[in-house]
Specification:
By secondary structure, the protein is α+β, with helices and mostly antiparallel strands. The protein has helices at 7-23, 82-85, 155-159, 162-165; strands at residues 29-35, 38-43, 47-52, 66-72, 75-81, 98-102, 110-114, 116-122, 127-128, 138-143, 149-153. The chain has a single domain, classed as CheA-289, Domain 4 (OB fold (Dihydrolipoamide Acetyltransferase, E2P), Beta Barrel). The protein is built from 4 helices and 11 strands, in the order αβββββαββββββαα.
Length: 169
C-alpha cells in the first residue's frame, strides 16, 4: 500500500518554501550569455525569457544586424543579432544560439540573438571593475575568479538607443 498523502503538511511546506524564496536575496544573480567572444550578464528582473531560435522572416531593406521578425507564441518580435549590431560580426547559426527577450515591462517586442546562454552567475563573487563600458548599455563590468571580463547589460539603455532603433538600411 502506498504512503498516505497529507495535504495540510504539503501546503505548509509549500508555503514555507515560497516565503523563503520571496525573501531570498537574488540581487547578485544574473543570467550569463555569450555574444561573439564576449561574456555578458543581464538582470533576471529585466529578462522575460531565453528561448531556442525559432524561424525568422527576413525584412527587406533592413540593416544586416536586424535579422527579421519571429512569431513567438502568437506575437511578432523584432530579432537583432547583438554581436553584429556591436560590430563583432554575424552570429553563426547553430543549436546553442538563443533569443534573449527583455521583460514585457519595457514595452518592446524585441529579441536579441546571442551565441549561447551560460546560466546563472552570482556577481557578488565577481570583482567590480573601475573602467566604464564602451557603450551606454554596458551598466558595469566585472572580473570573475579567473580574471575574465563580464559586461552587465542595461536593457533599458539598449532598447532606447537611437542606433538600435534605426533598423532600416
Amino acid at each position: 500500500m502506498g504512503k498516505k498523502f497529507n495535504l495540510r503538511e504539503f501546503q505548509t511546506q509549500l508555503s514555507q518554501q515560497l516565503l523563503a524564496a520571496a525573501t531570498r536575496d537574488n540581487t547578485g544573480s544574473r543570467l550569463g550569455f555569450r555574444v561573439g567572444e564576449v561574456s555578458w550578464l543581464v538582470s533576471l528582473a529585466d529578462t522575460e525569457e531565453v528561448i531556442p531560435v525559432p524561424p525568422i522572416v527576413k525584412v527587406p531593406g533592413a540593416r544586416r544586424w536586424f535579422r527579421g521578425v519571429a512569431n513567438i507564441r502568437g506575437n511578432l518580435y523584432a530579432v537583432s543579432d547583438f554581436a553584429d549590431f556591436m560590430g563583432q560580426g554575424v552570429t553563426a547559426e547553430h543549436t546553442e544560439c538563443r533569443l534573449l527577450i527583455p521583460h514585457h515591462d519595457f514595452g518592446v517586442n524585441a529579441a536579441l540573438l546571442v551565441r549561447s546562454a551560460l546560466g546563472l552567475r552570482n556577481v557578488s563573487r565577481y570583482q567590480l571593475r573601475d573602467e566604464p563600458g564602451a557603450q551606454s548599455w554596458v551598466a558595469r563590468q566585472y572580473s570573475d575568479e579567473a580574471g575574465a571580463v563580464w559586461c552587465d547589460l542595461d536593457f533599458g539603455q539598449l532598447l532606447g538607443n537611437a542606433d538600435f532603433l534605426m533598423v532600416e538600411a
